[in-house]
Amino acid sequence: MIVGIIGMGLIGGSMAIDLKRRGFAEKILGVEKEPVNASAAASIGLCDEVVTFEECVDRSDIVVIAVPVGAAVKMLPRVLDRFQASDAKGKIVIDTCSTKSQMVRSVHYHPFRACYVATHPMAGTEYSGPWAAMPNLFDGRACIFANAEESDPKALATVEKLYDTLNMRPTYMNAENHDVHTAYVSHISHVTSFALALTVLDKEKDEKHIFDLASGGFSSTVRLAKSSPDMWVPILTQNRENVLKVIDTYLEKMREFRDAIEDFDSEKIESLICDANRIKKIIR
Q1: Tens of pLDDT, residues 131-146
Q2: Helix axis angle, 229-238 to 188-203, nearest 10°
Q3: Cα separation, 264 vs 202, whole angstroms
Q4: Global pTM?
Q5: Is 96 helix (H, G, I), strand (E, B) or coil?
Q6: Within this chain, do residues 102 and 215 fall inside the same structural domain, yes or no?
Q7: 168 with 195: CB under 8 angstroms?
Q8: What residues pair up with 120 in beta bridges, in sequence order?
Q9: How many CB atoms neighbour CB 281 within 10 A?
């Protein structure tokens, strides 16, 4: 199995490490538009060869699109067009993007749509680039398969095996539901982290105090604010409607806390915190 990975950053690079060392891929072909990142991916050993987009698509059995969703939504039709041009029906392309609706819509009527399996491995860190890649990143995490019924059954089975090699738990849903759920469990977390970081930076002009006083709670809450804008700008714009609904709900809850604190309403504050504590039944 030759796996071509377009985008050798955190997700693509980490996938390359484990697919190779766990025996799923005999060879990894990497594509990187940034020369520094391409050189790093090769020197670190994330891929066996750094190749062009065209060579990657032509030589790979499975093409993995692991670039920001703004670029991925334009790239996916190009991959399928190249499949069609060479009548390469046995080939497979997957993506790892955090939004799915625009991805699946972009190729809904493509003659080679069945070669595409829409996936979202729910794993990551706040870091990016080839240097962020690590083994075991995906172990025990969930992988979303979106609109799986639109993919060829053999292609789907192969991709399920790929993610099984990464020790991921498969979950199946349609693209629209995926985008709603990720807005609640992932996208709002990043927005609030960005907002908290901006709040602290705006009020605390002496950065030394931030580092001196930062506790584990602050560090863990603001950790996501280190995430790359190249990745998150297209995610938040593509999933705009769902993210806006979640932000509105979040602001309502913040207003409840603000009003209770302003009114010295200890019972209301306690009630809000106890209600929030119910999350312990879901996340341990």
Answers
A1: 999 999 999 999 999 9
A2: 120
A3: 26
A4: 0.88
A5: coil
A6: no
A7: no
A8: 144
A9: 7
